[in-house]
Design brief:
There is one protein chain. The protein has one domain: UDP-N-acetylmuramoyl-L-alanine:D-glutamate ligase, CATH 3.40.1190. The relative contact order is 0.15. It contains nine helices and eleven strands. The strands form two sheets. The chain has a nine-stranded mixed beta sheet with strand order 3-2-1-4-5-8-9-10-11, with helices on both faces. A two-stranded antiparallel sheet has the order 6-7. The protein starts with a strand and ends with a helix. With about 260 residues, the chain is an alpha/beta fold. Helix 2 runs parallel beside helix 3 and helix 7 packs antiparallel against helix 8. It binds 3-hydroxy-5-(hydroxymethyl)-2-methylisonicotinaldehyde. 3-hydroxy-5-(hydroxymethyl)-2-methylisonicotinaldehyde binds next to strand 1 and helix 7.
Length: about 260
Amino acid sequence: MRVLAINDISCAGKCSLTVALPVLSACGATVDILPTALLSTHTGGFTGYTFLNLDAEMYKICDHWETLGLKYDVIYSGYLGSRAQIDLVIGLKKRFLKEGGIFVVDPVLGDNFTFYKGFDEAFAADMGRLCAVSDYILPNETESFLLTGERDFSKALEKLRAVCPHPVITGAEDAKGYGLYYFDDAPRYLPLKKITGNFHGAGDVFASAFAGCVGGGFSMEAALKLTADFCYASIERTAREVPDRRYGLNYERELFRITSAFREQ
Ligand code: PXL
């Protein structure tokens, strides 16, 4: 399986591409990367971080790849550095996704019911257009709200499903408890255990593992269960081992869950 991971490089604080590469590799993928921006850290909870937008370089990289005839089984996109990049990524499906390949979009926009720094309503509307050309989308509860205007997850899932065949709303907390709302061939709910706290980078660990599992041949349900187990174990370990939660998940020693599932597949 050959995967293209489109995301930023946050040099410190595990998230985005520094997470996507090892996690997708554990799924047995050969991973190429298209970096969207270069930051000293991610933007959540840090001040004074550096940010270099890579718009111009992305166009050049893609033009070169076209001369090589590169094609991917899976394209997975996460944090995008500008609205212009959204149109570029929409175009990549046609240019680089194999016939029958899978396009997974994590519409990174915000958390805790606020936008991440640099994002706004216009960005969310453009992200909606990217969701509309994808096979799987993985909004968290905040992003689900920003994309649909719905706080009720069943209604939000219905709206997302009108746009994309397989939406997953992650980290959804409501009267039912905590879990995933998703649509495979019908609307479904997967209850999960919750560990209290704000764990930066958890969404990227989740999206990378899910893209690798579903791209690697697991059913949507099996991919979500395996991904959720891996994330839970990583978050539990992080809660024990990492005092400063801005630096991301200690997922490394939990990767065996993924590699062993692929060995048994
Ligand atoms: O984990 C999402 C993410 C990715 N990349 C950057 C971010 C964030 C969230 O804050 O700032 C640069």
